[in-house]
Amino acid sequence: MSDAVIDVSGLTKIFGDRKVVDDVAMRVERGQICGFLGPNGSGKTTTIRMLCGLLRPDGGQGTCLGFDILREAPEIKRRVGYMTQRFSLYEDLSIRENLDFIARVYGVRERRRAVNATLEQLGLARRGGQLAGQLSGGWKQRLALAACMLHEPRLLLLDEPTAGVDPKARREFWEQIHELAARGITILVSTHYMDEAERCHELAYIAYGKLLITGTAREVVVHSKLTTWTVTGNDLFALAAELRSQPGVEMVVPFGNTLHVSGADAQLLAQTLAPYRERAGLDWQRGKPGLEDVFIKMMDYAPDNFES
Amino acid sequence: MNRYFSWRRFWAVLTKEFVQMRRDRLTFAMMVGIPILQLILFGFAINADPKALPTAVLAADNSEFARSFVRAMENSGYFRVVRHIADTRAGERALAIGEAQFVVTIPEGFARKLVRGERPVLLLEADASDPAATSNALAALLTLNQTAFRHDLRGSLAHLQNQLPPFEVRVHRRYNPEGITQYNIVPGLIGTILTMTMVMMTSLAMTRERERGTMENLLATPVRPIEVMTGKIVPYIVVGYVQVSIILAAAWALFGVPMVGSLVLLSLALIVFIASNLAVGFTFSTLAKNQLQAMQMAFFFFLPSILLSGFMFPFRGMPQWAQWLGEVLPLTHFLRILRGILLKGNGPAEIMPNMWPIGLFLLVAAAIALIRYRETLD
Ligand SMILES: Nc1ncnc2c1ncn2[C@@H]1O[C@H](COP(=O)(O)OP(=O)(O)O)[C@@H](O)[C@H]1O
Ligand SMILES: [Mg+2]
Known about the structure:
The structure holds two protein chains of two kinds.
Chain A: E1 4-15, E2 18-29, E3 33-37, H1 44-51, E4 59-64, E5 67-68, H2 73-79, E6 80-83, H3 95-105, H4 111-122, H5 137-149, E7 155-159, H6 167-182, E8 186-191, H7 194-198, E9 202-207, E10 210-215, H8 217-224, E11 227-233, H9 236-244, E12 251-255, E13 258-263, H10 266-278, E14 282-287, H11 291-301
Parallel strand pairs in A: 3-8, 3-9, 6-7, 7-8
Antiparallel strand pairs in A: 1-2, 1-4, 4-5, 9-10, 11-13, 11-14, 12-13
Chain B: H1 7-23, H2 25-47, E1 53-59, H3 64-75, E2 79-84, H4 88-96, E3 102-106, H5 110-115, E4 121-127, H6 131-147, H7 158-162, E5 168-174, H8 182-212, H9 215-220, H10 225-255, H11 263-287, H12 291-308, H13 320-328, H14 330-344, H15 348-372
Parallel strand pairs in B: 1-2, 1-3, 4-5
Antiparallel strand pairs in B: 3-4
Helix pairs in contact in B: 1-10, 2-8, 2-10, 8-10, 8-11, 8-12, 8-14, 10-11, 11-12, 11-14, 11-15, 14-15
The complex binds adenosine-5'-diphosphate and magnesium ion.
Adenosine-5'-diphosphate is lined by residues 15, 20, 38, 40-46 of chain A.
């Protein structure tokens, strides 16, 4: 008996004549936090919508919480907490009315108590009568998260829950996510932030609708076989331009005051960089590639099915 | 917990709709304001009792009798002779340009026939395009033919007094042959206002969710289509009743419009009629991509409802194809029901022939709405 909460394969969605999600397979175990990464328009939202029965896949099969995603969408909807990318609670309802509505629709037991507890937790106990539309972006995000957890779902699907949220709120959010995971709740969370990716148990990276890699952050880095050197010093801009055309250099990416120079062929890269390492005013380190390096590289090599 | 229909989820949608309706002040004001405004506008038009209406006289018979008749018309207060004309063409023109509201034609040999007891025919042509303006005058005229010649018919002609009426007045209502009267207007108003607000409001029901982005969340919840539909429709049934109550109360208090029939029966018929309009609106809102499209669809439904239902034009005066179209529309049948109940005191048996077509319409519209309702975002 497998413990997979999400177990899908061959998931495909076609809009018009574009394969927006192409043959995606995904498996997430109970209590795991799976980070779902990929550039804008790569198909993250579409995949998540297919998982919770909001979109009908054009191909593929699988289960969510043990229910068939094609035939048992109502069962899945009842048990999943889905936080949409865009705020989708009612702006012309108050905070409390929104929570009340959600609690009723999901049939939450002891509704009043549950709503009050949620307001308390949010620190909005005294602002329950305020219209949701008047909340700031960060507060809307928190409210939406609280709303999708009201019915105590076993699986959370969070679509860019921290986009546009300040760092403190983000940190609190991630603490909460880890707490939930520790209680056995499974979480699939899409994000653009690499520091958030590092906080996930596993990662899935999607580009142009194709799932390029899955695994832990370490596995992803190892699997990429990428070697990265970092350099600090003067006039990095000119250096970057110069390095880009050199053999073995696949990526030159500035990170603030440092430059990440990466390539798949470690030996060739070392050879190429040898003369530069002699240069005065430059401080070279052989570093480990970060997730970002890996993902940028993967994007460059991703089959671009949008132009073909 | 029921898979197919849950009262709790229905109730959740219902209360949400009510709260949102209350928050939307402008729309709310419109729903209450439109009936009052319309009624007052129409109502004063109804109530006006215009006097001294311009009248042209075509006297082919210049007898004492003819002059007496014209004098009697003027004495009634409703008619004011503005012109004496020579031929029918001039009469046509006077009516067409609005110079005269009435043209009286006293035929040749009127006096001779009258004296012989042959009951000559007086022709009165009325510009009935505004029936409220002419109806009282016409009513006054009908009493005239009994009194106009009281002084002229004496002596050897006295026996003509008794054989009433001594002549016939033939009225031609021009431009509006059926002559919608004031009592027709209140039922008509109820029907059209309901059609307008109900279809419009519900046609926005789903498109608003879609445009505001709340659709995704709604669809992600376990709520079922039938719960969303009923939950969104029921609040407007309540609104419909409020509107009808306002119109009826105002029509009765301000203008003394009679209500002969049973108000309970009226309320029952109302439910079906309102629900059928709401189902149409809901269907539109599942078809429309945005609120503008929804409004356009609502208008596409509203226009034929007004034009072909018998509210605007007399139903029997329309071409056959238009009548067939009209028979499909709920408003057509509802107007007949309303007039029947309010003015004629019709009971259940009499309104049945017009009840079931509305019911059938409701079933079909609701079925389409449910089929069209997407549980996914596809
Ligand atoms: N309903 C839709 N109809 C047509 N194209 C869509 C629809 N939804 C999304 N897309 C397209 O599918 C692609 C993937 O979108 P999405 O899943 O939202 O990506 P992500 O969430 O990773 O940014 C985008 O190019 C988007 O324009
Ligand atoms: Mg997205």
